[in-house]
Predict the structure.
Amino acid sequence: SEAKVGEQQQIQNKKLSQPAIFIPVDRSPEIQEARLKLPVLAEEQVIMEAVRENPCVVICGETGSGKTTQVPQFLYEAGYASGIIGITEPRRVAAVSMSHRVAKEMNLSTRVVSYQIRYEGNVTDETKIKFMTDGVLLKEIQKDFLLQRYSVIIIDEAHERSVYTDILIGLLSRIVPLRNKKGMPMKLLVMSATLRVEDFTDNQKLFRTPPPVIKVDARQFPVTIHFNKRTPLEDYTGEAFHKTCKIHRMLPPGGILVFLTGQAEVHSLCRRLRKAFPFRKDEEADTSEAMRKFKKAKQKKTSLPRIDLDNYSALPVDEGDEDREAGIGDEDDEGSDLDIGDDPEEKADPSIPLYVLPLYSLLAPEQQAKVFRPSPPGTRLCVVATNVAETSLTIPGIKYVVDCGRVKKRFYDRVTGVSSFKVTWTSQASANQRAGRAGRTEPGHCYRLYSSAVFGDFSLFSEAEITRRPVEDLVLQMKDLNIDKVVNFPFPTPPSAEALVAAEQLLVSLGALKEPPRTGRVKEMEQARLSCPITPLGRAMASFPVAPRYAKMLALGKQQDCLPYVISVVAAMTVREIFVDLDRPAGSEDESSKLTQRRARLTQMRRLWAGQGASLLLGDLMVMLGAVGACEFAGCTPKFCEENGLRYKAMVEIRRLRGQLTNAVNAVCPEVGAFVDPKMAPPTEHQVVCLRQIVLAGLGDHLARRVQAEDILDPKWKNGYKTPLMDDPVFIHPTSALFKTLPEFVVYQEIMETTKMYMRGVSAVEAEWVPELLPQYCHFGPPLESPQPWFCSSSGTVRCHRSSTFFRVGWQLPAVEM
Ligand code: ADP
Ligand code: MG
């Protein structure tokens, strides 16, 4: 019986450690009824028990089981809102939409259940439940490492493995024990739509005792999978159109959800479907209350009454706002693509109208909320969505899924440091998630626009984003959070150690991180080399959405009124190829002579853009600048681009990037007041000199020097350049603006190997700028005995000292008085 008393005491203690106040929530009967159907409700006791007993808990449950909307409510009701209950989402659209939904379910104002995304939010002093993007919470950790305003943090959609989510989990695995130690208890919940959570739970570096995993069993109705016999390689949007038309005409009622990869595709398919299945006038007469209300609201909005004769569809035509607060790298970012022509045979007269709605991350919240409302009576709902509908949002009433099998992903080019978006095959796990969307309320069907053989070749799971992303960028972001020892950071999936070390070195050389000491004990120096703190310049760079080399150029750009030019050059370098390929082989002899003519003309044009004298020394970057300037001056038309050998898509993209980068610079440095002037004047000679210096400051590790005639022992070095990293010579390409000039010192954007190793994007620089702009590469002081310095002035005052790879060259620099 003593044991029993002890047990009771334990229970007593447990009760004491429970939050005392239970907060009643006043929900409407309809909401209450809908909630009771959610699988997560059945697990409320288990979840709250686990939360009480553990600092960290993992919850797994199918999309739509109620995790995002209900778990914050459980915590609130159980009295955990002594501080704020914070929920992070990888997507803005989910943060906004879920905060509205939870406020409504709880019958609370948005002053209490609020959201915060990058540039907007409705958080107040009364906020108790706060939905936010993961980036927002990261920035808050930077200001207050202990997150003292929060009592609970929920990391939602952890299965997406976004870089910020991964970093957050790593950070919180340290913050939570620290808070508990300091007597300010805090809970961490990690929620995932898949059961694959070992990276979080079986990770000694992350959690010493593995957190409990609670599985929510969702009712899932069977979904029949239909594979295509053939796999369209190009026009999957067209294929999606045909499939959707067929489903709508032939199959029983039930919503259709189409998965495409980006905003432009979504709009294009929406337009096509609306044309094929318009609302007819006679239907309009007996439209639902909702539609009449909408029309009234629309009329109110426009100040002058106006009759639109050919407006057949009474429902709104969503155009979305393409540019809404798009950070570079949003998954839906994409240049506009061409509208696909209509297929007349698909215009058959349907008996039921199709209610077509787009859905993607950057869609305005009001537009996006429509997918949750019942579609007008007598219509069939058809949502055309990006990946956002895969797990973040559950759309009610979907019975048919059309899956293009692709996803738009960010890729990183290790050579150029440029990240870009590419459409690739998705993973099997993700395709199955998409199929599952069809079986939420009744048995459904999933139409895959690819063959089962292609599916068999998909990877099993999507890999963590961290293994695909630039680490320089990531390391800089973490240093900006004052995480100095990035190598020791408990990443759920760590990037390779070599990648981290290389990133740290590059950032030091760019001046973004403080230089480690050059003397001392080897071991201490090693340590210091891997934990360099950030510099003020680094902080400025961290705020620009481009790779660090380019971020540095932007950070320096405001000097001497160079900013518009720096922004244009960075935008042009970030777009992979702005010129059409002049080397393309000709098909026939006739074509060949035409091609030769065209080549000559285009080469001449590029020379013209490069200019003479001072501006020529900016080289290929001046050609880019000239091309951007000329193209904008001509109104950026496809015709101008075609005639002048420019890629139209690239030019449109550059224009968009210029806008975004200008906003980014203004956000950091409002006093500059930068704006995009499409008709900017060419830079002055003075500015060109400054631009060359800015480019050198950014591309300093891509410095090359022409080998002097008297030093050439092997003929292969004729006109060759020596770079610190390679044993073999590299060359200036014949199409480069500097091919004839052959300056002694150049910086390049990247090296491409074709018949020879060629530098691309070459600019001439002056040797005497090196010690000033790249002091990290130089040694100032008495000559070093060994190893051989990279830069060595005749007077022995300037020497390169850093990384050993730089020691092999022994370039002469003119003496500089320091
Ligand atoms: P999970 O996070 O587990 O995927 P959610 O909590 O997002 O699940 O969704 C639970 C249910 O709430 C779903 O059936 C979904 O359709 C519904 N729901 C979510 N947001 C809204 C909304 N704004 N309007 C109506 N229903 C919604
Ligand atoms: Mg969710």
